[in-house]
Structures are given as C-alpha cells and as structure tokens.
Design brief:
The complex is a heterodimer of chains A (234) and B (108). Chain A is mainly α and 234 residues long. Chain A contains 13 helices and no strands. Chain A is 74% helix and 0% strand. In chain A, helix 2 packs parallel to helix 4. With 108 residues, chain B is mainly alpha-helical. The chains are: A mainly alpha (234), B mainly alpha (108).
Chain lengths: 234, 108
C-alpha cells in the first residue's frame, strides 16, 4: 500500500542539517501555550493541531474566539488566511501524481501541506522517482505533523514556565527558518523573482488591506515573476 | 468564550482542508510541464514570501513587542550564520532565538 522504504526516507527528513523540527516545534509549543491561556483543554489543543495543522489558521481561530466571533466569521477568516494552501497544493501535487498510485493517497496526504513540509518536498522532488514521490511525501508529512502535535502538547504542559522572553525567542525561529528555506529555494529566475517581489509587495499591500495583503501581494508578485520568466525564456 | 470550542476547531479544520482538497482536484488537470503549473509555482512562492515578510515586518503576537531594528539585526545576523554554516538550517534558527532573547534581556 505504502512503500516503507520511501516512507521512511521521507520521515527521516526531520533529522539532519535541513531539519524543520526546531522551527516547527518552537511555533507549535507557542500555540500550545496560547491555547491553554485561552482556556482550551489539553485534548482540544492537541485535536486542533491534529485536524488543522496550519499555524496561521490556528492563530486566527484563537484570536477570533478571543473576541467572540461567530462560527461563520471564523470560517471566513481562517479560509482567507489559509487560502495560500491552494496555490501550494496545485504547484506540488502534479509532481507527485502517478497513474500507478491510488487517489486516496493524494486526498488524504494533502492534509500535510504546510510551509515547511512543502518546501522540503519541493527541494527533494528531483531526487526521487515520480512513482515513489507520494510515499516519500507521506513520510515527510507524517513526520512534520507528528512534531507539530507533540509540540502543541509540550507547549500546553509547559505554559507556566514559558515567560515573555522565552516566547519572543520562540516566535523569531519560524520566520528565520522560512527565510533561510526560501533563499535556498531561489534556484531559477522565476522562483527568485517570485520570492523577491512577494517579499516586497506583501508588506506594501498591508497598507491597503492587512487582511488581503498576502493574497493580493502574492498574486501580483507571482504573476509578474511568471511573466518575467516566460519573456526571458523566449 | 461564547462558542463551543470543538465546533470552532472543526470549522477551522474544514476551512483549511478546503484549500488543500480543491488544490488536489485542480492539480489532476494540470501537467507539471505546462505554463499553468509554472504560474501556480510562482504564485505559491510569492504568496509564501509575502507571508514571511508580513510575519517579520508586521508580526502578530509576541514578536510585535520587539523593536523592528532588533528584528532586522537578528534576521541579518542569522542569515550570515546560515551562509557561514554552508546553508545549515539548524544553527541559524537556534542562534536567532538565543540572540533575540539576549538582546531583549539586556534591553538594547
């Protein structure tokens, strides 16, 4: 059903010099502590990471609940902040799809799409034969998802010991990890332009709309980068 | 807390899974060699870059309490560590947390 060899190969991506475990762990420890402070039970906190596994979405849910938003408002706010997962999925799945593999693997494993797992898979794709990529991906996903769930539990239990200074230290880890990963991914003209223009336009659009800045800025930056790359190639 | 926590978690997970599953359905019709795929690839990287830039420049939560000059100093030095350690990702991430906590502690 799942090729163990490739699954384990993917699973081991949480070890070594490119490990996402520290960055993922740090941010989900902070989420665990935050959910405890908001009054979630330990089961609810773990359940939240188990089912959602997307940090900005969990943060928006926590903030919305804190201000007493309705379920519809939570749905729209979370959908908006996690809509970036759509282009991420569309730009990953064609690399993993193979006619010999059953479809359920794709429908289930898309749950593992998050920034760190996506960047690792993109980085390693060419090293794995297309037929085996989905099992490799399920390995990466299971590993990063497990780290996130375990860290939420840890953060919840350790929340009393996490003072402001520690939480600030934890909060910088994820942006640093992502920045380094993105710089490492800048190997083609199109990707480099996408990263540079997105970094610039995202914050610029914040002044127009804080809610929509990532999607608007990302859409315009990505489209421009695509056109630049296509013109250059021709 | 006015609404049921479990319902809020379920609504959050459905809203998140929606983008993922729609992505899989769309991806079935897109070839990895097509222009459409390349466009989506650019959109994914640029949206992530916009998200990361926003996390650093306009952070929410604990990081918002740190002066932006300190944030940029930490990011700059962490990137130097990243390049000095031959693009190792573990050292710059640990370094950033320790360095920021130290700067915050001595209250620069």
């Amino acid at each position: 059903m799942i090729d163990t060899k490739y699954f384990l190969k993917g699973f081991k991506s949480i070890k070594g010099v490119g490990s996402p475990a520290i960055a993922l762990g740090a941010s989900f420890v902070a989420i665990g502590a935050l959910l405890k402070n908001l009054g979630f039970s330990i089961q609810e906190s773990v359940f939240s990471t188990f089912l959602t596994y997307a940090l900005p979405g969990s943060l928006v849910m926590a903030e919305s609940m804190f201000v007493g938003a309705s379920l519809i408002n939570i749905f729209i706010a979370v959908w908006l902040v996690n809509a970036r997962l759509y282009p991420m999925t569309v730009s990953l799945m064609p690399l993993l799809m193979h006619s010999s593999q059953p479809k359920w693997k794709y429908y289930l494993s898309c749950h593992f799409i998050a920034v760190s797992s996506w960047l690792i898979m993109k980085d390693n794709c060419e090293k794995i034969d297309k037929e085996n990529r989905i099992d490799f991906w399920i390995g990466i996903g299971t590993a990063t998802w497990s780290v996130a769930i375990f860290s939420t539990l840890l953060g919840y239990m350790a929340s009393e010991y996490l003072n402001k200074d520690i939480l600030i230290g934890l909060a910088i880890i994820n942006p640093i990890y992502f920045t380094c990963m993105m710089i490492g991914a800048m190997k083609t003209l199109q990707v480099s332009c996408s990263v540079i223009l997105g970094t610039f336009l995202g914050p610029v659009f914040y002044f127009i709309s804080p809610e929509w800045c990532i999607l608007f800025g990302g859409f315009i930056a990505g489209t421009l980068a695509f056109l630049i790359g296509e013109i250059h190639d021709n | 807390m006015t609404i049921n926590v479990i319902l809020a978690i379920l609504v959050t997970s459905i809203a998140t899974y929606l983008s993922r599953i729609l992505g899989v359905i769309s991806a079935e019709k897109i070839k990895e060699t097509s222009k459409m795929f390349r466009w989506f690839n650019c959109l994914a990287y640029s949206t992530l870059a916009a998200l990361i830039a926003r996390m650093i420049i306009f952070p929410a939560g604990d990081l918002a309490e740190v002066n932006y000059v300190l944030r940029f100093i930490v990011i700059g030095t962490s990137l130097i560590v990243f390049f000095l350690t031959n693009k190792n990702l573990v050292y710059p991430t640990i370094f950033s947390a320790l360095f920021l906590s130290l700067l915050n502690f001595i209250n620069i």
